[in-house]
Amino acid sequence: MNEQLEQTNEISLVDLFKILRNNIVLITVLTLLIGLIAALYAFLIVDPTYKSNAYVLVQVQNDPSSSTDFDLINAQRLLATAADLISMPVVLEKVIDDLSLDLTPTQLKDGLTVTSSNTSYFINVSFISDDLIESKEIVNAVIDAAIDFADNNVAILEDNIIRTSFAKDGVYEAPNKPLYVIIGLLLGGILGVGIAFIKEMFNNTFRTKDQLEAAFGIQVLGVIPQFQVKEAKKHEAK
Fold this sequence. Notes:
Layout: H1 2-8, H2 13-22, H3 24-45, E1 49-58, H4 72-86, H5 89-99, H6 105-111, E2 112-116, E3 122-129, H7 132-153, E4 161-163, E5 171-174, H8 177-201, H9 209-216
Antiparallel strand pairs: 1-3, 1-4, 1-5, 2-3
Helix pairs in contact: 1-9, 3-8, 5-6, 5-7
């Protein structure tokens, strides 16, 4: 009996569509509401950030008097060392002092990105800030401080780190506003559908005569179909 009742209580694909149709207003309202909240957060609340970057080149000359004689193997070996030097606390502390930044070396390092490649001799230095001018100034100051420290304190890097570009005003980095809105709409739709199915799970009414027969062990003689009563319109004679 219980197994039969469970089988008759199973929700078919048609029932799923009916649940969604009956709760379309709820789903639509939640979708638009969560999407609107996400849009307000992305456009009005969260602070935009800007990214600026510049490049330095690591090169080792075999003959200082020659402009074409370079030791490419040793330059590649020094690449990782130079990249590590750029983000060292001693370099970042000098940048903080030079620019009078209200930041700690750790906070400055969190916004700084230094990347290099095994197939290149260039190091990309970038910084993300909520101020497009500040992002440019920090990148340029970091490169200057790193080159100055290397030339005066690290013999193997002396004259081997060459600036190849200057940072420009930062470009918009985040937040991705359209993505926020899309995610908000998706979450709203999922929440609406979830609530609709939860409501259905707690709905203990019988939907079909088979459920009634299985639950009470009786035979249903007839079913009144669902219909709408339309009121007749009375037209008054003029």
